[in-house]
Amino acid sequence: MIWAKEETLSREEIEALQLVRLQQTTARVYEKSAPYRRKMDEAGVKPEHIRTLADLKNLPFVTKQDMRDNYPFGLFTVPKDELVRIHASSGTTGKPTVVGYTKKDLQVWTQCVSRIAAMGGATAKDVAQICFGYGMFTGALGLHYGLENMGAAMVPSSTGNTEKQIMFMKDFGTTLLVATPSYALRIAEVALQLGIDPKKDLQVKTALLGSELLTEAMRTEMHKLWGDDVLVTSNYGMSELMGPGVSGECEQLCGMHINEDYFIPEIIDPKTGEVLPPGEKGELVITCIYKEALPLIRYRTKDITRLLYEPCPCGRTTVRMENLDGRTDDMLKIRGVNVFPSQIEEVLLGIEEIGPHYEIIVTRKDHADRLEIRVELAHAVDAYKQLQELEHKIRHKLRIVLGLDAKIRLESPNTLQRFEGKAQRVRDLRKEV
Fold it and tell me: For the whole model, what pTM was predicted?
């Protein structure tokens, strides 16, 4: 189902609308935000210099550090008394990034989420269970209001108490699950331990997954546990830009459609900042062109993807972003080799003998980097020879993909830590040496 006519505009109509809104937003931030005005003056660009969409590249980037440096409201373009909602990041690596919404911003946010929910398979008939944590995190409330706006019956169960989550799913007839990929797998795992088969005993038909990377291997694992007929789609957003609602997969599963009437995407070389041609892979940069409280311009997301402009069979004309390869700040440099955790996950989830849970540990000894990967066996194995053969198989497949060797630690089933929010798969201990 296509939710809004703006999803089917011609490329010319999309770009004409984007230019008008970009010019308005540029003028807004220059007039109302002193930090923005300083950045633009330093770059030698004024609002009147934005005559075409190509002029966007002349505007300065904004980063998470800019938000921290101007904590809490320095980049805002409305006075605090016009805000009706404030969210913030956890601030685990520094000052939290604070975001705010006017009444109009919340209305836009709701519509954007309704769009991505509809393209991801949601309908007004769904019983939608939100297994994101409610609070300062934008994911839960964002998906809640967007799905509620569609007419779905909401079950705001939040995270934790997985057995009770399963009870609600069974008793309420939950048909749509909102969760991180790792927690969706955890729910199915616990259900099986309770003697409940998610494929037969639960009614989930759609999974709207977000907040962490959904690899194709993880999607395959979802189908193994939840059933092949469950539609598993990924959606994208971040609190700095809005929350969920920036983009989402349609039922064709060929990339995430970006709400281009509200966001302009670019792909840049993460090292040089140069804008790359369509189809090339690099860092995603997003400009918000219809926000009142916090309209970020050229925000560097650090996410690695590429843009797909080819027509989509679903009928939408908006550009699609390929499912993420990872983040520039997730990349590990090990013995001179660039390694993304998603590469390791793709290999591990393609091996039947092991489960979907793993941990990557990087250490340094005698001035040399060492990569160790802990993986769980899918089933208990007692034969030493079988364990040796499996360890060799995993090492061999990883060596082909990564170009380096790794130590493999095979763990018993249900040994590794489970996560209800974003999974923490990597421990880089080199800084502690």
Answer: 0.85
Backbone angles phi, psi at 68, to 5 degrees: -70, -40
**Token digits of residue 214:** 């959904």
Residue-wise pLDDT for 324-367, tens only, equals: 888 887 778 887 777 888 889 889 999 999 988 899 999 988 76
Is pLDDT at 292 greater than 80 in this prediction? Answer: yes
Distant-in-sequence contacts of 215-221, Cβ < 8 A, 24+ apart: 215/323, 215/342, 215/345, 215/346, 215/349, 216/323, 216/346, 217/345, 217/346, 217/348, 217/349, 217/350, 218/181, 218/185, 218/345, 218/349, 218/356, 220/349, 221/185, 221/349, 221/356
As given in the structure block, the two tokens for residue 364 are 């340094």
Residue listed under structure tokens 């302009």: 264
| Contact between 262 and 238 (Cβ < 8 Å) | no
Contact between 276 and 282 under an 8 Å Cβ cutoff? The reply is yes
Mark 87-115 as b/e (b = at least 16 C-beta within 10 Å).
Answer: bbbeeeeebbbbbbbbeebbebbbbbbbb
CA 200 to chain centre: 29
Task: Give the model confidence (pLDDT) of 303-330 as tens digits.
Answer: 999 999 999 999 999 999 999 888 887 7
